[in-house]
Amino acid sequence: MLKGLALTPPVIGRISIGKVVEKEGRRLPEKDDEFTVTSQVQNREGWITHPIDETLRTSAGAKLRSIPVRLLFDDADLSLRANYTLFDRGTGRPMCVGNGETCKRSTSSGVQTLPCPSPEGCELAKGGHCKPYGRLNVRIGDDDELGTFVFRTTGYNSIRTLSARLSYFHAVSGGLLSTLPLELRLRGKSTTQSHRAPIYYVDLTVRAGMTLADAIGNARTESQSRQSSGFDQGALDEAARQGFAAGAFEESEEEAASVVEEFFPEDFDNGQAGGSDRLDAKPGLAEKLNRRVASSQLTGVVASGGK
């Protein structure tokens, strides 16, 4: 096994509620009012639709606002990972990932574990560059029982709702999240911040037409069937836990670049992406972070009289 490489759940497709479009020569994210299930392949127009997207729609051209899913793990934190994340806009690399208590930060001397005061109280997060960032892995269909589709989001509403639902479902089912018949649903709301225009977020419920009691009974039956066949869910969860812990950051530089383009577009599309080697390039975020860390360390030395 390669050291320093996070082993994440196998991904065979993406779930999104928006897309990146080209406007006046710039690639910008555009929100949508429906789900789109895509493959992991892009062309000039964007991500190529996955064949399962068409089968999920009730009719040609119908809005896709619910997706029947199952989870791969019983541990909610393995299915949904949410962190405060700071990306380098120039390279797409994750620079700092924290949970509000501790963080892993890439510095000139390597990855360090440091206190995380959350974006509101962090000197490095000034300017709004550090955001909550969530990744939810779900199964769609039964063609690949270990393959997942990933939904990525920086939306507070989606992260908060999904976190609460997973916690509640885990509690009421006795921890049988992997066998619960669930459904992703797109919901809308208006707020004063959105100027009363609708904003959309993702919710997780039991399947349409089922009660919570029905879903729990189904989960128990399925769990017993798996156990009798020799399926070891506990071992699968532990393997995933160790896989995540094997690397400092979950996203690779290759994956992170597309994440930055979709969710952090302010600086990614201004000609600096991948262009830090230009003679006229401005200092990248990594360089700025290292300067701030060095400055804070120097301030601490001066304050202590150089001791």
From TrEMBL:
Domain of life of the native organism: Bacteria
Keyword set, alphabetical order: Hydrolase
An annotated Gene Ontology molecular function: hydrolase activity
InterPro entries per UniProt: Gp3-like
Protein name: Hydrolase or metal-binding protein
Organism per entry: Variovorax robiniae
